[in-house]
Amino acid sequence: MTFKNFTALYAQRVAQSDHARACEQREETSLTQTSEGVNGLTSVPALLQRNAAEFGDKAAYREKELGIWQNWTWSEAADEIDALALGLLTLGVAEGDFIAIIGRNRPYLYWAMVAVQSVGAVPVPLYSDASADEMAYVLDHCGARFVIAADQEQVDKVTDVQGGLSQFEQMIYLDPRGLRKYDHANLHQFSKVQDAGRAALSELMPELNRRREALNYDSICVMLYTSGTTGKPKGVVLSNRNIIETSRHSSEFDSLSAGEDILAYLPMAWVGDFIFSLGQAYWTGFCVNCPESVDTMMTDLREIGPTYYFAPPRVFETQLTTVMIRMEDATPMKKRMFDYFMGHAKKVGPAILDGETVSGFDKLKYKLGDLLVYGPLKNTLGFSRVRIGYTAGEAIGPEIFDFYRSLGINLKQLYGQTEASVFITQQPDGQVRSDTVGVPSPGVELKIAENGEVFYRSEGTFVEYYKNAESTADTKDPEGWVATGDAGFIEEGTGHLRIIDRAKDVANMSDGALFAPKYVENKLKFYPNILEAVVFGAGKDRCTAFINIDLTAVGNWAERNNIAYASYQELAGHPRVLETIQEHVETVNKSVAEDPMLSGCQVHRFLVLHKQLDADDGELTRTQKVRRKIIGEKFEDLVNALYNGSPEIYTETEVTYEDGRKGEISATLEIRDAAVVPVTASKIAAE
Amino acid sequence: MLDSTDSYVTEDGRTIGGVVMEMKNITLRFGGVVAIKDISFDIREGEIRAIIGPNGAGKSSMLNVISGFYVPQDGEVLFHGKPRPHMKPYEVAQQGIARTFQNIALFEGMTVLDNVMTGRLNKMNSGLLAQAIWRGKAEQEEIENREKAEKIIDFLEIQHIRKTPVARLPYGLKKRVELARALVSEPSILLLDEPMAGMNVEEKEDMSRFILDVNDEFGTTIALIEHDMGVVMDLSDRVVVMDYGKKIGDGTPSDIRNNQAVIDAYLGVAHD
Fold it and tell me: Residue A264 falls within a domain, yes or no?
């Protein structure tokens, strides 16, 4: 059976709507928008000037520093940005230059993005945890003349590779610590650049104004590099139109106001952060709060109490695991209260949130629960004020999703891509489910190709891949339709999009049965004990899997059960851990077997990996997505062992430490067989 | 040979000044046991000075002599050229000398922030009454001291455990908190007793970086005892090697590496 048949069958079962056809008809209508921006606001710097005039005294940025939340109003932020922009002019930044920005979320770096735009250059934010070599590729590809780096660590990385960068000229750094003795010929401190800009105010202001006015709706707003599950990262060019239109539509969709507070903690190089912390923040004028350090994020979240919150599923999972672990330590009285009221919340919470009718008694009991359990719990999690929460990037476990919704947190799903300036579909209030990703976002058209691949078209659709016309043409057709690379279908009746898997990951097994790895992996990952899973089976007669344990959850379990361990590796190989994982795998097999389409994907054999999959080793992308092909190649010996029936395998693996040095670890891994449910899958496959 | 008032610039651009502390023919006995026997060396301003040696060599005793906790039976300690009388620990602290301990000596029940704040005790001058009613000078002082404490917390990257009781912290972090408490008193000389004992490689690297940064950023003179030879050789400007209470070597790391007496002490030779 081919992939095409599969989607056709799936469509029969859930019945594909006419939506796709409607979309195709709409293809005729032209997308071109003649109006140049809304109220002449055609660039982010223009939005900044409006905000400074309109919300002058309102907080625009906060950052916790020295234990205190420091505050900048919109007019103060505009001053800082102007000073930096003028400073960049003194350094000789030209229009059209690419300027890389590297660091964790800090107000100064967000200012840097807008200052760069103000002088007509293009900001290119980079992942701050990327290695020097990864940075070298991007810096060279975009030909960055300038780099704005957060601290010594980033300066060192760029210094290491600058020899190979023909266009690189100068670097600006934020935190002077450890940098005093460096050669400052091409190195400037952020505040000094601003000082130079302020000093040259009268002289250079006309030039700055000229450059700002030259920006239009189609000039480049930002260039973001995709994390790249396969191959080298690609530079996605997004115009002001892409960013501002998307921000406008999505802000209206959730009626975001200037009163929102968000916590900016996700990588600045990721498109989501750019839209939330810059696009939407500048469009609506809300406040962006930056944590004190990476480690204090949870504390800062509680202190700020954001009203609008975004996190990938992994963050929600971790938080839930932490709650559960801490509840285990609670007194019996509290534990019983928690269990009782959480049970009630599970029953009626989502209904109350969706505004459905619930009996008066249930409502009263929920109110009591809110007073005793939900309220305090939400406060601890930092979700007391969350009005809208989003999760995206990966499928979220239904239990996890329901847990947050039953507490009264309006957690929704969205589906997006860098190429779409995030939004493709999202869930409207009151239509939230864990198995769909929602309806097309305002201004987005959707169509499902014959082979099941999802296509979209919107004003957020990217301009091009930088210096890569070939890939651009492969992804985006002349009419503006962009291939997502994901297979999915639109549900009849609701019009919600459901994503099945990455189109290129879906394959056939040797007997023709359908192989959709993500489907099984997600089911496995919903167990708190399992952090990551990689399922193999394309072209094989049965499926096997690599499992990564979650050190927090399993470690806690080990402590409770008096299991001593000295390292991750030892814990991962412990017989009792393997037993637990085996139970999980077998439960998942049962659930997979219930789906006649995918029953062939049951996991026959598995092993628990001796190391955590890591982006530094190239096994995950910087956004924590599995790089299936690379893992398959790197651990070829293990994959073979899974298929040749050996009970254990000795392996040596090279690992990269955080400082870039390499080391080697070795382990003997036990391979276990998992019980599978016999199915008549071959019948379907034979069709 | 450098004179005691000369200064020089190191390869990595730091300026090392004249002698700030000088040990002259120190001998320390505990009853019949001679812990330190006729040792002389000096510490220059702004340098990182390491004292190394096998177990029982007398390193910690030497550090206690420097800090003024032990009074040697013979010899004298010159601080800024002047002989030092016997002093109480708080008087030592007032001179600008701070230390950490081999076995962590923090207030386990108190939070990290409170522990660090105790390092500022010497700088608080308001009276008991003012502190009790929390008015005027007392409040002002608390704000100033808290700011200093927060700067050090930021410097050592322990913001995330600011409000955590020390008892709940892992060993490596406790060591860092102890360093924070020593640093917050703004010492001119910092004595570190085995700052990296019991740490894993990653924690050692972090600690080494902090020690270098402290020296670089605040210009603090650092005297440290350490077992890990690799760390010592990388960190320090000059090294004193002790064995059985005697000094068997003194010089730059490369001098020490080629010193036969030191090699013997570490690799072991038959004592006749």
Answer: no
| CATH class belonging to B1-96+189-196+203-209+220-272 | alpha beta
Same fold, B1-96+189-196+203-209+220-272 and B105-186: yes
Q: Are residues A474 and A518 in the same domain?
A: no
Cβ-Cβ contacts under 8 Å, B10 against chain A? none
Would A588 be classed as within a structural domain? Answer: yes
CB-CB under 8 Å, B154 with A65 = yes
Establish if A295 touches chain B: CB-CB under 8 angstroms.
Answer: yes
Domain membership flag for residue A256? no
Q: What is the CA radius of gyration of chain A?
A: 26
Hey, is the C-beta of B268 within 8 angstroms of any chain A C-beta? no
Q: B185, B45, B189: which is closest to B124 by C-alpha?
A: B185
User: What percentage of chain B's residues is helix, strand, coil (to nearest 5)?
Assistant: 40, 25, 35
pLDDT in tens, A465-522: 999 999 999 999 999 999 998 888 898 888 999 887 877 788 888 888 888 888 888 8
Cβ contact B154–A659 (<8 Å): no
- Residue A292: closest C-alpha in chain B: B159
Q: Does domain B105-186 have CATH number 2.40.50.90?
A: no
Best mutation target among A63, A64, A65, A66 (most B Cβ atoms within 10 Å) is A66
Q: Where are the domains of chain B?
A: 1-96+189-196+203-209+220-272, 105-186
Task: Kindly write down the DSSP assignment for every residue of A513-571, as one continuous string.
Answer: -EE-HHHHHHHHHTSTTEEEEEEE-TTSSSEEEEEEE-HHHHHHHHHHTT---SSHHHH
Tell me if A470 sits within 8 A of A488, measured CB to CB.
no
Tell me how far the alpha carbon of residue B249 is from its chain's centroid. 20
Query: Is B147 part of the contact surface with chain A (CB cutoff 8 Å)?
Result: yes
| Domain count of the fold of chain A | 3
How close B13 comes to chain A (CA, Å)?
7
Do A70 and A178 lie in one domain? The reply is yes
Q: How near does any CA of chain B get to the CA of A298, in Å?
A: 9
Task: Name the band, by pLDDT with cuts 50, 70 and 90, for residue A400.
Answer: confident
Asked whether B113 and B64 are in contact (CB, 8 A), the reply is no
pLDDT digit string, tens, across residues A356-375: 888 999 999 999 999 999 99
For residue A168, what are the domain limits? 44-215
Residue type (1 letter), B228: D
Q: Which of A65, A178, A293 sits opposite B213 (nearest CB)?
A: A178
Is A153:A108 a contact under the CB 8 Å cutoff? no
